[in-house]
C-alpha cells in the first residue's frame, strides 16, 4: 500500500511545519526537507513551533528517512536579543538540524562562526532580487538564497545563470502572499504595536477597511468595493502547481510551500501534491524512470551562452516585472530618455533555457490545491502579464472540502477495518477521499451498515466530532491519514 518515497536534494520539495507533528507529517508525505521555527527568533510566532527537544527528535526522524530540517532564525533582531540568539544557535547546533534560515547579516556571520557545520540559507526577508546580492551572500558563507517573491521567471533564470553552481536557489511555489516587499511590513507595528518583523504580525492586510470623515465620528463609509467595506491589502494566494516545469527549468533548486501556521492536513495534501508533480517532472524530462531510478544526472536547463531565445515570451516580458523599470508603464519626459532606456534593456543579456515540452500533470493533481482552504489563486509575480492582485471584497477562504476524520489504525480483520477519530459528519453512501502518501487519494463510498462506535456498538452514522469510530475498509490506510469529503455547499470561511 505504501509507495516508496524518493528523497532528492534537487529539485527539493520544501514543506512547512508549525510543530513536531507537522514536521513528521510533511516527511511522511514526501517532503525532501522541512522548515520550521523554534520558540523564539522566527517570523511566525502564532504556531506553537518546536522546542529544542522537538528539534532533536524531528531531526532524527527526518534523517532516518533521508530528509532534512531547516530552522527559521530570520527576524531582524534588536541589540538586547543578540546574547540570547548566540545561545540559541549553540543549542540548535546540538540538535542535529541541517540549516539555519537567516535574514540579518550579523546573525549570519555569528552562526557561521559558532556553528560552521550548519548550512546558512538567506531568507526571502533579505530581498534578494539580483545575482550581485546572491554572489555577495555566497562569499559571506550562504549555501542558499531564498529569492524575493517579487521576481518573475526570467529574473530567476538570470540569477541562476550568474551565480556559482553550488549556491542553491529557493523559491516559493504555494501559499499566502504578503502586501509588503518580501514580507518586510510595518502596517502591523503601526496599527497594533505587534512587530511583523519579529514574528508577531496581526495580519492587518486581511482586515476590512472603511472610511471615516473627521467631522462625522462614528459614521462609516464603505470604500465602494462592497456594501460591507473593502479589504485594501488582501493579496491572493500563490499556486504554481501547473507551472513547476518553468521554475525548475529556470534553475530553482528548492520549491517552497508556505504555511507554517496551517493544519497538518494542509501540510500533507500540498506536500504530497507538489512531491508527486516533481516526480512527474523528473520522469517526463527523462531524469528518472517510472520507478524513480536515475537515468541521467539532474541539472537545471539554463543555457549559459547569454543568448535570448527569440520566441521566449517570458524573456520578452521580463523587464516589465517591476514598477519603475522601463516597460509598458514607463512614461519618460523626453523621447531621448525613452530611446536610451529601450537600448539599455535590449542589451541586457537575459539567460535562456533549452526548448522543452511542457510537463503534463494528471487531472487529480491539478485539482489538489483546490481541496484545501485557500483564497483566490494566482501565479504571484512570476509572469508579468498575470501578476498577483488583491481580493478587495473579502478576506475569507474558499472551502469546498472538509476533513471528516483521521485514521488511528487499520486492521485486516473482518475484511479490513479502519478506526478513526471523527472531525465532521460521515454517513452511509457518502463519498470520501483518503489522503495517501505518494499517490492519488483513494476514493471510497461509506457502505450501508458496519459503522461502530468506540465500544463496538453499531451506529447509523458518525455525527459526533472528536470521538472514536470504526468503519469497514478493505484497503490498508496509514496512521494519521486524513479522510476528507466534499462539502454539500462550498463556503467562504475565515481560516
Automatic annotation (TrEMBL):
Coiled coil: none annotated. Belongs to the peptidase U32 family. This is Protease or peptidase. Keywords: Hydrolase, Protease. InterPro entries: Peptidase_U32 (IPR001539), Peptidase_U32_C (IPR032525), RNA/ubiquinone_mod_enzymes (IPR051454). GO terms for biological process: proteolysis. Gene3D superfamilies: Translation factors (2.40.30.10). GO terms for molecular function: peptidase activity. Pfam families: Peptidase_U32, Peptidase_U32_C. PROSITE patterns: PEPTIDASE_U32. Residues 401-484 form the Peptidase family U32 C-terminal domain.
Amino acid at each position: 500500500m505504501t509507495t516508496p518515497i524518493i528523497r532528492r536534494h534537487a529539485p527539493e520539495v520544501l514543506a512547512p511545519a508549525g510543530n513536531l507533528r507537522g514536521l513528521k507529517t510533511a516527511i511522511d508525505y514526501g517532503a525532501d526537507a522541512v522548515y520550521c521555527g523554534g520558540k523564539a527568533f522566527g517570523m511566525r510566532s502564532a504556531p506553537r513551533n518546536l522546542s529544542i527537544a522537538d528539534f532533536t527528535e524531528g531531526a532524527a526522524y527526518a534523517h532516518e528517512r533521508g530528509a532534512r530540517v531547516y530552522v527559521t532564525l530570520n527576524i531582524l533582531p534588536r541589540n538586547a536579543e543578540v546574547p540570547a540568539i548566540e545561545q540559541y544557535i549553540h543549542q540548535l547546533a546540538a540538535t542535529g538540524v541541517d540549516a539555519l534560515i537567516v535574514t540579518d547579516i550579523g546573525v549570519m556571520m555569528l552562526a557561521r562562526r559558532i556553528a560552521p557545520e550548519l548550512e546558512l540559507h538567506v531568507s526571502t526577508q533579505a530581498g534578494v532580487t539580483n545575482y550581485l546580492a546572491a554572489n555577495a551572500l555566497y562569499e559571506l558563507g550562504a549555501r542558499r538564497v531564498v529569492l524575493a517573491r517579487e521576481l518573475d521567471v526570467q529574473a530567476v533564470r538570470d540569477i541562476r545563470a550568474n551565480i556559482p553552481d553550488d549556491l542553491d536557489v529557493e523559491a516559493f511555489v504555494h501559499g499566502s502572499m504578503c502586501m509588503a516587499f518580501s514580507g518586510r511590513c510595518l502596517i502591523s507595528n503601526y496599527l497594533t504595536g505587534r512587530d511583523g518583523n519579529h514574528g508577531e504580525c496581526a495580519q492587518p492586510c486581511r482586515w476590512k477597511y472603511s472610511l471615516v470623515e473627521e467631522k462625522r465620528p462614528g459614521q462609516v463609509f464603505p470604500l465602494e468595493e462592497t456594501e460591507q467595506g473593502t479589504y485594501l491589502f488582501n493579496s491572493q494566494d500563490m499556486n504554481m502547481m501547473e507551472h513547476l516545469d518553468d521554475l525548475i527549468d529556470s534553475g530553482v533548486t528548492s520549491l517552497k510551500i508556505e504555511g507554517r501556521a496551517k493544519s497538518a492536513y494542509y501540510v500533507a495534501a500540498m506536500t504530497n501534491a507538489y512531491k508527486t508533480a516533481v516526480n512527474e517532472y523528473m520522469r517526463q524530462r527523462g531524469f528518472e524512470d517510472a520507478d524513480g531510478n536515475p537515468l541521467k544526472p539532474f541539472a537545471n536547463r539554463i543555457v549559459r551562452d547569454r543568448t535570448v531565445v527569440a520566441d521566449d515570451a517570458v524573456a520578452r516580458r521580463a523587464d516589465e516585472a517591476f514598477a519603475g523599470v522601463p516597460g509598458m508603464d514607463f512614461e519618460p519626459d523626453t523621447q531621448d530618455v525613452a530611446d536610451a532606456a529601450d537600448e539599455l534593456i535590449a542589451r541586457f543579456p537575459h539567460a535562456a533555457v533549452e526548448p522543452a515540452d511542457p510537463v503534463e500533470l494528471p487531472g487529480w493533481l491539478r485539482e489538489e490545491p483546490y481541496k484545501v482552504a485557500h483564497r483566490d489563486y494566482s501565479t504571484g509575480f512570476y509572469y508579468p502579464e498575470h501578476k498577483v492582485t488583491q481580493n478587495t471584497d473579502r478576506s475569507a477562504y474558499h472551502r469546498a472540502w472538509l476533513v471528516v476524520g483521521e485514521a488511528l489504525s487499520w486492521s485486516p480483520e473482518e475484511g479490513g477495518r479502519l478506526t478513526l477519530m471523527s472531525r465532521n459528519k460521515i454517513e452511509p453512501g457518502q463519498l470520501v477521499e483518503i489522503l495517501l502518501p505518494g499517490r492519488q487519494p483513494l476514493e471510497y463510498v461509506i457502505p450501508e451498515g458496519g459503522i461502530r462506535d468506540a465500544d463496538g456498538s453499531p451506529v447509523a452514522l458518525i455525527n459526533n466530532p472528536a470521538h472514536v469510530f470504526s468503519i469497514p475498509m478493505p484497503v490498508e490506510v496509514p496512521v494519521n491519514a486524513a479522510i476528507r469529503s466534499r462539502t454539500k455547499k462550498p463556503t467562504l470561511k475565515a481560516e
